[in-house]
Amino acid sequence: MVTSSAPLFVSSGDLIADRRYRWAIDHARRGDLAIDADIVVQTVELAPAFATAWFALGAIRDGLSDRAGADRLIASDLTRFLRAEAADQAQYHLVLAADVFVYCGELHSIAAATAAVLAGLFAFTVESHDGPDVVLGETLRYAHSADYLREALKRAGLNLLALDPASKSTEKGVPISGLVIVARSGG
């Protein structure tokens, strides 16, 4: 893992990029490399001069290539990737997004793009709130309402199988409200 204590490399100068970078490095220490690579790519898109993030991305990709069973690592916008897969007539029996959509506000296009390649189940987690639609919290993570998620899945032609409350983490000792969602392809 690449880290530096030099002041020049501690911050990119962009608050959101810094938060994403720190989150990715924290998760990389736990072995969540595929998600981390995507988050670090987002970091360098926001702050292209953040050299430490570039080095970390290289180290994370090296770690992924060393893992058995890793076919490929794709650094891409999720919706763009899924649409390209649909154009190539790819089909997936399972699409799983754990701890991903807290960094995505709008999920309608992601649900529609997922539906286009889905021949099975779509399972994901979100942080949730009791109000309408989507909110960006103080932690710079998005929280989605259950009604918003139902609507996004319905518009995409997906059949909701489960929408269950679950707290996957805590913030300052307080459980964060969340949901685990499972949907099936409509066809």
Structural summary, described in words:
With 187 residues, this protein is an alpha/beta fold. The chain folds into 2 domains: 7-66; 78-184, Vaccinia Virus protein VP39 (Rossmann fold), CATH 3.40.50.150. 40% of the residues lie in helices and 22% in strands. The protein contains 6 helices and 8 strands. The chain has helices at residues 15-28, 33-46, 51-66, 78-87, 108-117, 146-155; strands at 92-97, 118-128, 134-136, 142-144, 159-165, 170-171, 174-175, 178-184. Strands 1, 2, 3, 4, 5 and 8 form a 6-stranded mixed β-sheet that branches. Strands 6-7 form a two-stranded antiparallel sheet. A hairpin with a 5-residue loop joins strand 3 and strand 4 (142-144). Helix 1 packs antiparallel against helix 2 and helix 2 (33-46) packs antiparallel against helix 3. The longest helix has 16 residues, at 51-66. The model is unreliable at 1-8 (pLDDT under 50).
Secondary structure topology:
Elements lengths: L14 H14 L4 H14 L4 H16 L11 H10 L4 E6 L10 H10 E11 L5 E3 L5 E3 L1 H10 L3 E7 L4 E2 L2 E2 L2 E7 L3
Parallel strand pairs: 1-2, 2-4
Antiparallel strand pairs: 2-8, 3-4, 5-8, 6-7
Helix pairs in contact: 1-2, 2-3, 4-5, 5-6
Short description:
By secondary structure, the chain is an alpha/beta fold. It contains 6 helices and 8 strands, in the order H-H-H-H-E-H-E-E-E-H-E-E-E-E.
Output the keywords.
187 residues, alpha/beta, Rossmann fold, 2 domains, six-stranded mixed β-sheet, two-stranded antiparallel ribbon, 6 helices, 40% helix
